[in-house]
Amino acid sequence: MPEESRSPLLVIGLGPVGLVTAAGFADLGFPVVGVDIDEDKVRTIREGRSPYHEPGLEPLIAKNIASGNLQVDTRADPWIPRAEVIFICVGTPPRPDTGEADTSAVEAVVDLVIQHHQGYTLLVEKSTVPVETARHIEERLQRANHDHIELASNPEFLREGAAVHDFFHPDRIVIGVRSPRAERILRDLYQKIDAPIVVADIETAEIIKYAANTFLATKISFINMVADLCEKTGADVDRVAEGIGLDKRISPYFLRAGIGFGGSCFPKDLKAFLHTGRRYGLDFGLVEAVIRINENRIAVFLDHLRQVLGGDLRDREIALLGLSFKPDTDDIREAPSLKLIPRLLEAGARLRLHDPVAMPHVQKLFPPGPALRYAGSVEEAVAGADAIALVTEWQEYRNMDLDRIKTLLRRPILVDGRNVFDPEEMKRRGFIYYPMGKGRWIPQGF
Ligand SMILES: NC(=O)c1ccc[n+]([C@@H]2O[C@H](COP(=O)([O-])OP(=O)(O)OC[C@H]3O[C@@H](n4cnc5c(N)ncnc54)[C@H](O)[C@@H]3O)[C@@H](O)[C@H]2O)c1
Questions:
Q1: Are 259 and 321 in contact (CB under 8 A)?
Q2: Which of 75, 209, 264, 330 should be mutated for ligand 1, with most atoms under 8 A from CB?
Q3: pTM of the prediction?
Q4: Domain spans in the chain, listed from the N-terminal domain onward
């Protein structure tokens, strides 16, 4: 089929998920139109640039904008009648009161598609939505006799910071469909991707996404629970993780003890999954415990800081390194740093904040002031500080010249929320080093 006659793939919502999906499919050779209501984002993308710090994304956008395979627009309605496949990639944030997923942006897209579609349209949920979202949409479509619109689910598993890699090399592709036609369309789209495809009904696909994130988060909270026991008993959580992770049934991944998980997915998806379980009258107490353990990590980390700084944080100068929720992204949604900053300020500490890319976003939430400075470099952040609080394990911090850093600090204290360094080596270098879940290394006498 000649390129011109193929209907464009429409991707609605150009957050990290939608933009990677749009640019990825364009790179696979499909004509793609990406739509977002945010004019600034659309302008940036149209210029061949990425609105997010995401490795490999900008070149992918630039290449496919230049080739014409990727177009972007602020309006979906002109494109909906021409699109056979529409991916919904808008946000599904938690409702502040209940934690339930707010699917109003998804509903708004459905409304628009109902209004403007012509002929058969496959509407694919890529946004993370609670089980039975598609069923409710289908009931609406049936009531209004819109039987040309078919629903499907194709949940996204990409990791920010590795999103482009994950688009082209996913562990698996999950397709939730009701008909062979929908299955064929989605299989054709992913034909060039070498990954197992799990085909299921839509409800199963919707649950897979929440179950995957909840399971991963459970591993993190599990090892953090064990970390606290290690700390009390002089044991080493990283060796425990190694010892259990070599069991193939467990695997070593997501067994890193630390300050806990953040980001735009785990915290909100767990709350939404918990809400779903409760709605069906089920015992989802496990999910509740995972959330509770994670929320308590901030208190554990603050406790470590207090311990090494003589019990009181008042007037202590703390260099807080790492503001994004994880390395290689400028996403600060639910980042541990955002919880730490106000609590440290309340405790009377003075902060110097540093992050390789996320500082502009944090500055909007916490403007600089007498007790809060943003440092242009790690050296500037640590010079004269009483302690380093390492919160995000950026490579730049892993590679720090520790001997030089030590000479800049007022006191050679490093409280590590990510267990980046080897305690033995830190001791040899003369640091007072406080990692997570390594009881033997609890600094004494401060
Ligand atoms: N970010 C991740 O790492 C990740 C990974 C897997 C799945 N998900 C899921 O994918 C979905 C999208 O995530 P995200 O982080 O990209 O979201 P996001 O909130 O960062 O971006 C959503 C985008 O949709 C746009 N938008 C909202 N309403 C719109 C409308 N009616 N028309 C056009 N654009 C509209 C917004 O302007 C925004 O740019 C969520 O459900 C999320 O849970 C996210």
A1: no
A2: 264
A3: 0.96
A4: 3-200, 209-294, 296-441
